[in-house]
Amino acid sequence: MDGAASTSLSPAAASHHSKLRLPATCEPPSELNPPKQATWIVFGATGHMGRSLIRAILSHGDKCTAVGWTQENTLEQMQRWHERNCLGLLCDVRVRETVDNVIKTSIEHWGNIDIIANCTGYGVIGACEDQDDYDLRNQFATNVLGTLNILQLSLPHFRAQSHGRYLIFSSTSGALGVPGLGPYCATKYAVEGLIESMLYEIDVFNIKATLVEPGHVRLDEPVEGPTEPPRLKRYGLFRVKAASPPYAGTSSPAGHAKRVVQWLNDRQPTSAVKSAELVWQLGHCSYPPLRLLLGSYAVESIRDRLRSIIEEIEDWKHLSFPVPVDEEEREREREEAQDAD
Asked: From CA 194, how far away is CA 98, in angstroms rounded?
């Protein structure tokens, strides 16, 4: 998963990579367990992970609807991806009607939908105090309400066919507090709580969901000529907010996220192509996990945070467990004896 971005890896090559396999316990596709052709909808198909996932899906012979964002993509751009197994559409996940149109059009075109991946996201890099009402509402509308729109509008179809799979891209920001990304982290925490809660409600309908939590992911696909989607922006799904004087120092914690993105540039440790291959397997495995962490950065950082939480609980748990009554009585007797002396 990790390593230098010195060479590009095609989706076909990734599919034959001997080490790119989910654990056997979740029964991923294999020569002994060949996958059935599945139909996908991928929201955020032109973003960092979405475009790699689309190519992995097509390289394995699955069918998919690749959904771009109305504010950044055009229908002409999405139609470049049209082929026998791919349909290009547009929507804005914040606008419920456009999500509904994508789902209905996909069902009409393919006949059914098996897997929905939500790779959309929007974040503002800046101190919590510096982010205004527009910044806050836009992040929650995209990341939380957009996810909820997709879930609510597709669940009737999944229930009717008694199966379905959601692959919801969260982030290490859904498990960590990152200075400079406060509201964005809040949206990802919300999505994690949403999916965990919903799983209890939909399990009876044979509908499953996984939160995909990648670390810093690099774009490492080979360029493929005229059908190449629009070039990615330097900051990906993030917009950088100008810092106010209290937070403008070169070492200010509020500037941490911006400094990390600038420093990483093309040195992100986790491969988008390899990640996409694992996510494709995830869509076809029999027993998907609640979370799939991608890359050593995600694993180490989240594990460290959970360890610190457990340690803090242990340090303070005595305040939550009352002393037994007999212990209180003995303590009172000792105090009385000391007073008598």
From this structure: 22
pLDDT tens for each residue of 205-221: 999 999 998 877 666 66
For residue 74, what pLDDT band results from cuts at 50, 70 and 90?
A: confident
Q: Where are the beta strands (DSSP E) in the chain?
A: 39-43, 63-69, 86-91, 115-118, 123-125, 164-169, 207-214, 217-218, 238-240, 270-271, 291-294
Most confident listed range (103-107, 168-172, 220-224, 300-304): 103-107
In angstroms, the CA 252 to CA 241 distance is 14
322 secondary structure, DSSP code? P
Distance from C-alpha of 304 to C-alpha of 65, rounded to nearest angstrom:
38
| Separation of alpha carbons 140 and 221, rounded Å | 30
Give backbone dihedrals phi and psi of 329, rounded to 5 degrees, phi first: -65, -45
